[in-house]
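Title: Prediction job returns without error message
Component: structure pipeline
Severity: low
Priority: P3
Assignee: unassigned

Description:
Job completed but the reporter wants confirmation the result is attached to the right record. Sequence as submitted:
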Amino acid sequence: MSGTCPFHRIPRPDAKLSRGLAALLALCVAAAPAAPQAPADASTSAPAAEAPVASSGGGLPPPAPLGADDLDIEHGDRLKGLKKVALAGVALYVITEADGGAVSGAALHGGMSHVHASMKVVGLEAGRLQALADRVHALAEASLKARGIEVIPHEALQALPSYAELQGQGDTAPLALDAQGGKGSVFSARGLPLLHMDEQAWLNRTVGGLFGAKVADPYVSLGDKMSVGFRKAKLEPVLQRLAAEAGTPLVMVRVVLSAAQVKTSSGGFSLSASAQTRNALVMPGWTNRLLVRLPDGDGGRVSLRQGRASDAGLGELVDVTTTGAKAVSALTTALTVAAAFYGAGRAVNSSTQALELRTTADHFDAVAGPQIEAMLAGLTQALTP
């Protein structure tokens, strides 16, 4: 057996290839400051005019009311006979950053396309978002009372012995969030305990029957999902004691507002990859919900069956892609195409885009407030006294 390395040797580029690559490199560097056009098969899209943007003073289109078909009800029998309840949790999730990428043609021996887009919302204030969370509490209470359901005073709930124990097991608010659904913050209304936990832990759910796929909660990190069993074991007895002391079921509200969305797609075996962003406030399905916990520990849930999006935009979408990022995309495309032409690799059609959605606290409130109010009014329709 010879001592020769079994790996194939990569042939040294000839002079013609070197001159071609050098020329392409110089051309790309010279063109880098100008914004390159997105390649036809690796495009990014930023539809800034997709949704109308009205001033915060008024003129925003009102959200459509929810009907029975818009609700997803689980264990509906546990949502009946609710003459009096306690609002034990009101959490507001605000997603302000998202990104995504897509690759196509990876299974082919020829070229491939790669696209990446990111979006960040700027102009929001933590204090105003906390005030919005407190407003969610007021809207939820008003919606319950409109259904003829009495809500025990917030001060009376705080005076119960188990309330302080539950508060000690809650997360610190506002909570920084970094999960599959994006980055943002979680706020808790009126100093209520913030119980950030996988929706599946509150009430397990599958689709397609007993052995169907589970529904995923994209707004809880993988680490929190892996440790949820330990946390649930500690929370369950405290929640049951609190409900027993209150003498009423507990209602827990979760509102998720996604202000940043990036959607990617690829053509699989084709050479098409794209990323799209959206200028609208989205309230995702299932994770926007009311959860009812009975004193015996059983629970029911009503949530949005599908996501809802505002007709009004949140602000101005601005392309903030750096010159360096544009240069890297242009160089990657040019150099890999040249190398593939000479049989030294695969061509990669690359495109990168970074966007800012510039809004104001006043305008965000003007868009979000009516959307939240309409949703809570619709969800409480599933609760009966």
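Comment from assignee: result matches the submitted record. The first strand starts at residue 42 and ends at 45.
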